[in-house]
Amino acid sequence: ETGVTQSPTHLIKTRGQQVTLRCSSQSGHNTVSWYQQALGQGPQFIFQYYREEENGRGNFPPRFSGLQFPNYSSELNVNALELDDSALYLCASSLAGYDTEAFFGQGTRLTVV
Amino acid sequence: ELKVEQNPLFLSMQEGKNYTIYCNYSTTSDRLYWYRQDPGKSLESLFVLLSNGAVKQEGRLMASLDTKARLSTLHITAAVHDLSATYFCAVDPGSLTASKLTFGTGTRLQVTL
């Protein structure tokens, strides 16, 4: 157990809908990153939040957005869902610093039909 | 753009045999991570390599990092069936906050009896 929890664990949505995924970071961690992992591929970096501000973004469109709250938990929002958004969404928490490590939650499996 | 390549993509090996998985990356970095992923599960941290020449061992797995060659290896000694999983290397380009990881394509390891 990493102490990083995500909810829900599974979700089915219809194309065009909106979805919110949630992540509680490990105690003491101030950074949360989100990744998308399509079936059979490696995780792809979506964006990162550090001290409630977006701190870097991967090659994802603006309909992928996020928030980080004062307790460092985070949300990932995806608007106008597309079939290709079906994936495992992983969040990772870490403590800013050089000698650090990211710990991953169990993931949310999103299916868009 | 940072690119991370792993080979082989798929590895079938017999119990008791040794093998090495290779991870090459395209830009300078001295932070490299190895993760294990079981089917349908999240990422389990195996090794954190933070300097040139770093070598870490845990059980039958040993990881090393050569930052000059931009190469990391994951060596498996006397494989057992429980090691069957997908293994990912991931590179951090050196951000303050870590966890902005670029993952390799993954190596699916199947250990047969």
Structure characterization notes:
The complex is a heterodimer of chains A (113) and B (113). Chain A has 113 residues and is an all-beta fold. Chain A contains no helices and eleven strands. In chain A, the strands form two sheets. In chain A, strands 2, 4, 5, 6, 9, 10 and 11 form a seven-stranded mixed β-sheet that branches. A four-stranded antiparallel β-sheet of chain A has the order 1-3-8-7, with no helix packed on it. In chain B, strands 2, 4, 5, 9, 10 and 11 form a six-stranded mixed β-sheet that branches. Chain B has a five-stranded antiparallel β-sheet with strand order 1-3-8-7-6, with no helix packed on it. In chain B, 0% of the residues lie in helices and 53% in strands. The radius of gyration of chain B is 13 Å and the shape is globular. Chains A and B meet through strand 4, strand 5, strand 9 and strand 10 of A and strand 5 and strand 10 of B.
Spell out the key features of this protein.
heterodimer, A: mainly beta, 7-stranded mixed sheet, 4-stranded antiparallel sheet, 11 strands, 0% helix, B: 113 residues, mainly beta, globular
Give the quaternary arrangement of the chains. Answer: heterodimer
Order of helices and strands of chain B: EEEEEEEEEEE
The N- and C-terminal alpha carbons of chain B lie at a distance of 41 Å
Low-confidence stretches of chain B: none
Give the biggest beta sheet of chain A.
7 strands, mixed
Largest chain interface and its two residue counts?
A: A-B, 29 and 23 residues
Q: Between the first and last Cα atoms of chain A, what is the distance in angstroms?
A: 31 Å
Which stretches of chain A are poorly predicted, pLDDT < 50 over at least 5 residues?
Answer: none
Mean pLDDT of chain B: 91
What overall form of chain A do the CA principal axes indicate? globular
Number of strands of chain A: 11
Task: Give a short overview.
Chain A has 113 residues and is an all-beta fold.
